[in-house]
Structures are given as structure tokens and as C-alpha cells.
């Protein structure tokens, strides 16, 4: 009978494989070049953009009157559990996310995608770290694919990739049948080890050579992904990641100003509430549109 660790690893693989299966290139016409088999993988929140993509999405949805404070608060409580668990109990983390997905149960995927496109153009577009986008553009200019990798729903990640001219996105997969959400996840949220499994699965599909690939993140939570590739890079790193990067002589970039860096010191629990609010927006809109 499989041990608990074996079951956990199997679930991580399932999550990563599901993310890779959903990863569609939104810009498949990149001219090949650069190092053979090389690709770049970028975390989203606080790496490519300032703050949480889902929080900004929530603000955009709220400004359209599509959610109310009650919707945000209910999902925030569930998602706060997600953050405080710190990856120690992935089953409970998945339950927290599914609590939010209950809002979209039965709603069309196309509705959420359409809203996400509008919110990006109106709210999120000016939140990008231009320094990180420039790093990604170097890979694109060299003919190396650039993928976003995030716990944010894959639909939101794909929108960001399309708007930024990147190759595509790996994200958390919400189960849908006949283009309507069931309210359940496929596997776990794309977090921690699951990100690494997704990168491996995509590399197998696309014939990338992991030792030639790059990964960029701000968080020590992404060490599994960073250590999966040959070229890890810390961007706007938290304390633990900065220490790891220094110990291993990884490149470190910090695009935050002093004022922004001070705000980044807000506790993980508080930030989790903001992230939760954003996810609430994404799922609650299905009931109010």
C-alpha cells in the first residue's frame, strides 16, 4: 500500500501534469534560437508584477460592482488558511482553494476569461515590474520561450502571458466540464513542489533541456522550481530566498524602490488576505454577471 509520502508525490505529479496539459502557447511563433533546449520560467506575483495578480483582479471586479465585501471576506478566510499552512498540508491548502471555487461552480470559463481580459487592461497592466519584463524579453529576443508559472488560475496566467507577449502560462487548474466549472481542483494548487513538477512535465512535452533552462522567483516557496533548472535567479527576493541565492551564487535582481521594499515586509498572513480577496473576485463574478 502506498505510503503517505508516495501519495503526496503522486498528487504533486498529477498537479504538474495537469498544469502542463493545460499550458497552451499563446505566442507559438517565436523564432527558435539561443541555447538549444533553453526556456525561461517566471513566477508572477512580486516577480513579474507588483503584488498579487488575484488581488488586483479583485479590485477590478469590485470596481465593476461584480462582487461585494461579503464575497471577499468569505473567500479571504479560506485563502488565509492556504497561506498560513505554508505548504505543510497540501490537502488542506487544496480545500481552502476549493472553498473559493464554490463561487464559480456551474459558471462558464469564458465569462471569467472575458472579465480577466478587461481587468488586466484597466487595472493590472501598469503593475508590471519593467525590469523583470526586460529580463523575459532578453530570452524572447534570443529565441527562448518564456512561460509564467503561478498558483494563480491558469486562465489568468494565460491572459498575462498573452498581454506581455510571452509564450504561455502554467497555473492552478480548476476542473471544468463542457466549459463550466465544477468547483473542484485538478490535483493541488500549483504551489511549491507542484510548480517543479509542472516545469518538468512541460519540459518533457516541449523537449526543453532543464540544465539549460532558467527560473525566476521572489519566494523561497519556489525553491523546488528554482533548483529544477540549471539557471535559478532571485527577483525581489524574500529573506530566505536571498540567503539561498547568496549561498549558491545565483543572480539577484531587486526592482523595488525603498518604499515598496518596506511595504513588502508586511506579514505573510496579511498578504494572504489580499490574495484571497482577489481570488474571491475571480470566483464570485460568476454569480453576479
What does this structure look like?
With 289 residues, the chain is of the alpha/beta class. The protein has one domain (4-288): Rossmann fold (3-Layer(aba) Sandwich). It has helices at 4-22, 53-63, 69-85, 90-101, 109-124, 130-141, 154-164, 193-206, 223-226, 239-248, 258-263, 268-288, and strands spanning 40-42, 146-153, 168-172, 174-177, 180-185, 214-217, 231-235, 252-253. The strands form two sheets. Strands 3-2-1-6-7-8 form a six-stranded parallel sheet, sandwiched between helices. A two-stranded antiparallel ribbon has the order 4-5. Helix 2 (53-63) crosses helix 12 (268-288) and helix 3 crosses helix 12. The protein is globular and about 45 Å long. The chain starts with a helix and ends with a helix.
Average of the residue pLDDT scores: 77
Q: Briefly note the structural class of the backbone.
A: alpha/beta
Helix/strand order: HEHHHHHEHEEEHEHEHEHH
* CATH structural fold name: Rossmann fold
Low-confidence stretches: 258-289
- Rounded Rg: 18 Å
Largest sheet data: 6 strands, parallel
Helix percent band: 40-55%
Strand content: 5-15%
Q: Would you spell out the secondary-structure blueprint of this structure?
A:
Elements: H1 4-22, E1 40-42, H2 53-63, H3 69-85, H4 90-101, H5 109-124, H6 130-141, E2 146-153, H7 154-164, E3 168-172, E4 174-177, E5 180-185, H8 193-206, E6 214-217, H9 223-226, E7 231-235, H10 239-248, E8 252-253, H11 258-263, H12 268-288
Parallel strand pairs: 1-2, 1-6, 2-3, 6-7, 7-8
Antiparallel strand pairs: 4-5
Amino acid at each position: 500500500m502506498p505510503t503517505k509520502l508516495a501519495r503526496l508525490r503522486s498528487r504533486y505529479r498529477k498537479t504538474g501534469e495537469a498544469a502542463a496539459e493545460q499550458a497552451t502557447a499563446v505566442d507559438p511563433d517565436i523564432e527558435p534560437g539561443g541555447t538549444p533546449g533553453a526556456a525561461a520560467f517566471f513566477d508572477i506575483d512580486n516577480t513579474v508584477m507588483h503584488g498579487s495578480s488575484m488581488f488586483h483582479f479583485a479590485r477590478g471586479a469590485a470596481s465593476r460592482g461584480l462582487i461585494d465585501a461579503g464575497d471577499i471576506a468569505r473567500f479571504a478566510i479560506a485563502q488565509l488558511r492556504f497561506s498560513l499552512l505554508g505548504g505543510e498540508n497540501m490537502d488542506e491548502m487544496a480545500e481552502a482553494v476549493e472553498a473559493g471555487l464554490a463561487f464559480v461552480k456551474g459558471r462558464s470559463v469564458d465569462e471569467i476569461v472575458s472579465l480577466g481580459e478587461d481587468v488586466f487592461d484597466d487595472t493590472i497592466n501598469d503593475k508590471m515590474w519593467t525590469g523583470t519584463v526586460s529580463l523575459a524579453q532578453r530570452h524572447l529576443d534570443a529565441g527562448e520561450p518564456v512561460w509564467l508559472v503561478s498558483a494563480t488560475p491558469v486562465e489568468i496566467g494565460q491572459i498575462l502571458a498573452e498581454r506581455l507577449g510571452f509564450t504561455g502560462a502554467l497555473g492552478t487548474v480548476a476542473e471544468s466540464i463542457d466549459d463550466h466549472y465544477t468547483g473542484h481542483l485538478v490535483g493541488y494548487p500549483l504551489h511549491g513542489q507542484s510548480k517543479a513538477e509542472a516545469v518538468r512535465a512541460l519540459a518533457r512535452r516541449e523537449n526543453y533541456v532543464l540544465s539549460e533552462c532558467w527560473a525566476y522567483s521572489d519566494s523561497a516557496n519556489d525553491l523546488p522550481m528554482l533548483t529544477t533548472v540549471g539557471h535559478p535567479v532571485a527577483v525581489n527576493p524574500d529573506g530566505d530566498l536571498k540567503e539561498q541565492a547568496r549561498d549558491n551564487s545565483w543572480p539577484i535582481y531587486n526592482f523595488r524602490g525603498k518604499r515598496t521594499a518596506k511595504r513588502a515586509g508586511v506579514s505573510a498572513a496579511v498578504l494572504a488576505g489580499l490574495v484571497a480577496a482577489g481570488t474571491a473576485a475571480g470566483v464570485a463574478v460568476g454569480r453576479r454577471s
